[in-house]
Specification:
By secondary structure, the chain is an alpha/beta fold. The chain is 31% helix and 26% strand. The protein is globular, with a radius of gyration of 24 Å.
Length: 465
C-alpha cells in the first residue's frame, strides 16, 4: 500500500479593509514597507490592519530600501498602541515584482530585528505558550496588488526554513469577543536607597506590581470560570427536524459578546515589597494610584485562561509604558525623582480604527497635554486619519495629588499616612492642584532615539551571548 502525505498550508485570513489599503498605496506608485497587525492562533492567523512605516526622510525613491532599525523602532511604538490580544505579527511590502529575491531577504532580516526590538522593549517577560512563534512576510506586487510571496518564519529559530502560507480576504476575518476591566490601584512603592537614576526607579516601580497582576484572580462577568471553558462558544442554530448546525461566518456579525472582568490583586500585608525594601526605612517612595483601564480582543472559542492572560498582559504593558514615558520626560528635563514624590502618570485615551466602531486602540496623554498632540502622534505613528472628536478621554480617572517636599529625618510610613489623609481631604474639597508639565513629544525624534538605544542594547546582548 502506498501512503500519501499531504502537507497542509497554513491559512492567514485578512480583513477586506486591508485589501483597500493595498489598493490605495498602489495608486501612489511609491514602494511601501509596513507592519502586519493581528492575532496568531494554533490553527490560523488573522490580520486586522496594515500599518505603513513613516518615511525616514521627505525624499521619495522608486527603490524600496528597508532599514531594519527604523522599521523595528516604529514597530515598538505601534505595539504600545495596540490592545490586548492584538500584536505585530509580521511585515509587508508593496514593491515592484523585479525585487522579489532581494526584497524577501531584506524583509526576513528586518523581521527578526523587529521581533528582537519588541521582545526587549518590555523587560518583564510574560509567560507564553510553548512552541514556535511564526511571523509573516508578504510581498505585494505594486502593479497588480496580488501577493507575490506569503511566507512565515520561526522567530525562535533564525536558521529555520520559510513556510508558505495562503492569504485570503474575508469580512469579517473572525468573530471577536471583547474583554475589559478597570483596575483600581493605590499602592506606595519604595525604592532602593541607591536607586537614584530613572531606570532604577522604573524597574523598582514595575516589577513588584507586575507580579501582583500576573498572580491576580480575575472574574469573568462576575463568575470564576474554568480555564478550559470557552469565552464565547461557537453559536449554533436549530435547523429542520431538531438538528443543529453552525452559523456560516459570512452571515454573522463581526462582534461576539462584551465581557466585564474584575481583578483581585493579592497584596502582601508585610511592609516590604518583592525587592526586599522595608517601606518604613525607604528613602524614596513612588505613589501609584488611579483607575487603570485594560482590554483585550480574542477570537471566538478562545479558552478563558488564554483570554485572561491577554487581559493581564495588556495591563502589564500599559503600566510599563506609562513608567517609560515618565522616565523619558524626566530625562528630557534633566530631572530626577525626589523623595516621596507623587508621580502623575499619563492616562490612557482610546480611538477607533478608521473612524468606525471596530477595534479600539489607545494612546497616552500627559496631564494638561492638549488632545491635538495625541492626535498628531496617532496620525504619524499609526497612519490613521482621526480627529479630536474621535478620541475617548474618559476611559480612566486619576486622582489629583501633590508632590511632597523631602524630609530626610522624618519617618517614611508616618509621612505617607499624613499625605494620604491630606490628599483625601483635598479631593473632597474639590481643590485643583498644580501638576508637573511635560513638553510635547516629537514622534520622529522619539523613534530615532528609541531605535538607537534599542540597537545598542541588542548589540550588547549579542556580544554577551
Amino acid at each position: 500500500m502506498c501512503k500519501v502525505f499531504i502537507k497542509m498550508v497554513r491559512i492567514i485570513v485578512a480583513e477586506e479593509t486591508c485589501a483597500e489599503s493595498i489598493r490605495t498605496w498602489r495608486k501612489q506608485q511609491e514602494p511601501v514597507v509596513g507592519l502586519i497587525l493581528g492575532k496568531t492562533t494554533s490553527t490560523k492567523d488573522y490580520i486586522i490592519k496594515f500599518v505603513r512605516c513613516p518615511a525616514k526622510s521627505e525624499t521619495s525613491s522608486e527603490v524600496l530600501k528597508i532599514e531594519d532599525n527604523w522599521v523595528a523602532g516604529h514597530a515598538v511604538e505601534v505595539s504600545h498602541i495596540l490592545p490586548g490580544g492584538i500584536s505585530v505579527i509580521g511585515l509587508f511590502a508593496v514593491a515592484d515584482p523585479s525585487s522579489d529575491k532581494t526584497l524577501q531577504s531584506s524583509l526576513r532580516q528586518a523581521l527578526y530585528c523587529t521581533y528582537s526590538f519588541i521582545n526587549h522593549s518590555c523587560p518583564y517577560k510574560f509567560p507564553t505558550s510553548e512552541g514556535p512563534k511564526l511571523w509573516t512576510v508578504i510581498h505585494f506586487d505594486m502593479t497588480s496588488g496580488r501577493s507575490i510571496f506569503s511566507k512565515q518564519f520561526d522567530m525562535l529559530d533564525r536558521v529555520s526554513s520559510a513556510k508558505p502560507v495562503d492569504l485570503k480576504y474575508q469580512q469579517p476575518c473572525s468573530r471577536w469577543s471583547f474583554l475589559n476591566s478597570h483596575v483600581d490601584i493605590d499602592i506606595t512603592i519604595p525604592l532602593a536607597p541607591l536607586a537614584s537614576t530613572n531606570v532604577q526607579c522604573l524597574q523598582a516601580m514595575v516589577w513588584p506590581f507586575c507580579d501582583q497582576i500576573l498572580n491576580s484572580s480575575v472574574l469573568l462577568n462576575g463568575a470564576m470560570m474554568n480555564d478550559s471553558d470557552m469565552v464565547d462558544p461557537e453559536i449554533t442554530v436549530k435547523s429542520g427536524k431538531g438538528h443543529k448546525q453552525k452559523h456560516k461566518q459570512s452571515t454573522l456579525a463581526k462582534w461576539g459578546k462584551t465581557h466585564s472582568c474584575e481583578f483581585f490583586l493579592h497584596n502582601d500585608d508585610n511592609e516590604s515589597d518583592q525587592n526586599g525594601i522595608d517601606l518604613s526605612k525607604a528613602s524614596q517612595c513612588i505613589k501609584l494610584c488611579g483607575s487603570f483601564y485594560t482590554c483585550a480582543y480574542v477570537p471566538l472559542k478562545t479558552p478563558v485562561s488564554e483570554a485572561i492572560e491577554e487581559l493581564k498582559f495588556d495591563l502589564i504593558r500599559s503600566v510599563f509604558r506609562r513608567c517609560s514615558l515618565v522616565c523619558e520626560e524626566l530625562q528630557d528635563q534633566n530631572r530626577q525623582l525626589t523623595s516621596h514624590q507623587y508621580v502623575m502618570f499619563p492616562r490612557r485615551v482610546g480611538f477607533p480604527k478608521q473612524n468606525t466602531d471596530e477595534f479600539q486602540f489607545s494612546e497616552y496623554q500627559f496631564h494638561a497635554e492638549p488632545l491635538e498632540d495625541c492626535v498628531a502622534r496617532i496620525q504619524e505613528t499609526f497612519d490613521e486619519a482621526i480627529s479630536v472628536d474621535d478620541i475617548n478621554n474618559a476611559l480612566e480617572e486619576f486622582k489629583q495629588v501633590k508632590s511632597t517636599e523631602s524630609v530626610p529625618k522624618q519617618d517614611t510610613q508616618e509621612m505617607i499616612d499624613k499625605d494620604s489623609q491630606r490628599k483625601d481631604a483635598q479631593i473632597e474639597n474639590g481643590e485643583m492642584e498644580e501638576q508637573a508639565q511635560f513638553p510635547i513629544r516629537n514622534y520622529r525624534a522619539l523613534l530615532a532615539a528609541g531605535t538607537a538605544v534599542l540597537a545598542v542594547v541588542l548589540s550588547y546582548l549579542s556580544l554577551a551571548d
